[in-house]
Design brief:
22 strands; FAD/NAD(P)-binding domain; five-stranded parallel beta sheet; Enolase-like, domain 1; 32% helix; seven-stranded mixed beta sheet
Length: 466
């Protein structure tokens, strides 16, 4: 078979690239090594974790909040089997949807491991060992990433686990030791904390979610501690050993003292590593770096003409929506268009409750750059909608240029932050000022009013409800 474009990997970047390429008239093939489409995100990442987050939040509310709302029930119990079964059904519906989209857009799907014979020939090795060869004018590498680990830690996938195994546990841990205070660890840690586990988070940096605005990490840690999680920041993990049903984690604290943590499960969530093994990159003269990533230019083309790479296998944040934007960019660039991505305006989200969302510059970055800025902040508890819902933790924070008032960063922790951040993204895409947002009518009562109030605070410290 001959194709205009072959995409290797069917995660959000890969399948979106295939759809857009087909829309633009390219005869397109999609290669996926696993029997289901959707990659990490749909199968063992974004979608299943959000399913468990929602289920655990329902349980937490039934246990702790229903009574205040005038809802009396007998004490709820966790049915882990049903919770995991529901999660699996959510995943199936989503991956089936991607299969439908491939048929709808006339994308040919091949199941097997794709590898380069040369830059215009791709070999597909199927599970039974048989092979098939595709001829292609251009190729997009979209093979994603896999969980990373630390020296001295052997993941046995039973007691010392990654995010993949954490989505399939048959019981609620008694004590989950979480290595890593980033997005993935905190989301899954909060799932099991809500379900009744003791969760101890051990983080190397001096704050959790260290890549986001520090005020967000400080507030999230305060709220999660209130929910029962405990935190040990500035701790360097040196090892983890599982014996029977017990796991012991060793670490060194900020003063150089060795400390140990003992639990029944250890979740290693120290980031992800680009997955580029087995692609046959050496056959076309490409080499991945020490983190498995492939170097690309501004159009996401590698040093080999006609071979592109997107998503987790290239520079930048490992985010599904970032990969999607890059997939669209490559397809449109191939069609002769002039697409563009402003990587500073790709939002980051932590789906704990309250949610955390951020876009643009952090306050720490602006200070480092020596840029003069204004800060507008507004507490969630001052919103009428928050009081009505009983969700009062968190704040809205807007950073604006001191002279032009252009919005430079938006940082939110609170209910529905993951959805509200889109307002900040759109505002910054159109280079709006804080005054532009402050003068726009926001429906009352809503959580989005916090965005308006924070912008009023950024203009000249004149919020209306604080």
């Amino acid at each position: 078979m001959k194709y205009d474009l072959t995409v290797i990997g069917s995660g959000p970047g890969g399948y979106v690239a295939a759809i857009r390429a087909s829309q633009l008239g390219f005869k397109t093939a999609l290669i996926e090594k696993y029997p289901t489409l959707g990659g990490t995100c749909l199968n063992v990442g974004c979608i299943p974790s959000k399913a468990l987050l929602d289920s655990s939040e329902h349980y937490h509310n039934a246990l702790h909040n229903f009574k205040a709302h005038g809802i009396d029930i007998t004490e709820p119990k966790v049915n882990m089997g049903q919770m995991i079964a529901r999660k699996a059904d959510v995943v199936k519906q989503n991956v089936d949807g991607i299969a439908f989209l491939m048929k709808k857009n006339k994308v040919d799907v091949y199941t097997g491991v794709g590898s380069f014979v040369n830059k215009n020939t791709i070999k597909v090795t199927k599970a039974d060992g048989t092979e098939e060869t595709l001829e292609t004018a251009k190729t997009i590498i979209a093979t994603g990433s896999k969980p990373a680990s630390l020296p001295g830690i052997e993941v046995d996938k039973k007691r010392i686990i990654t995010s993949t195994e954490a989505l399939e546990l048959k019981e609620v841990p008694k004590h989950l030791i979480l290595i890593g205070g980033g997005v993935i660890g905190l989301e899954l840690g909060s799932v099991y904390s809500r379900l009744g586990a003791k969760v101890s988070c051990v983080e190397y940096a001096d704050s959790i979610i260290p890549t986001m605005d520090r005020a967000l990490g400080k507030e999230l840690q305060r709220v999660l501690k209130k929910q029962g999680m405990e935190f040990f920041t500035s701790h360097k993990v040196s090892g983890a050993i599982a014996k029977g049903k017990e796991v012991t984690v060793t670490a060194t604290d900020a003063k150089g003292k060795e400390v140990t943590f003992t639990g029944d499960y250890c979740l290693v969530a120290v980031g992800r590593r680009a997955y580029t093994e087995g692609l046959g990159l050496e056959n076309i003269g490409l080499k991945a770096d020490e983190r498995g990533r492939i170097a690309v230019n501004d159009h996401l083309e590698t040093s080999v003409e006609g071979v592109f790479a997107i998503g987790d296998v290239v520079r930048g944040a490992m985010l599904a929506h970032k990969a999607e934007e890059e997939g669209v960019l490559v397809a449109e660039y191939m069609a002769g268009q002039k697409p563009h991505i402003d990587y500073k305006l790709i939002p980051g989200v932590v789906y704990t409750w309250p949610e955390v969302a951020s876009v643009g510059y952090t306050e720490e970055e602006l200070k480092t750059d020596g840029r003069k800025y204004k800060v507008g902040s507004f507490p969630v508890r001052a919103l009428g909608r928050a009081r009505a819902a009983g969700d009062i933790d968190g704040f809205f924070k807007v950073l604006a240029d001191a002279e032009t008032d252009e919005i430079l960063g938006v940082h939110i922790i609170g209910p529905r932050a993951a959805d509200i951040i889109a307002e900040g993204v759109i505002a910054m895409e159109f280079r709006a000022s804080a005054e532009d947002i402050a003068r726009a009518s926001h429906a009352h009562p809503t959580f989005t009013e916090g965005m308006k109030e924070a912008c009023l605070a950024a203009i000249d410290n004149r919020p209306l409800h604080m």
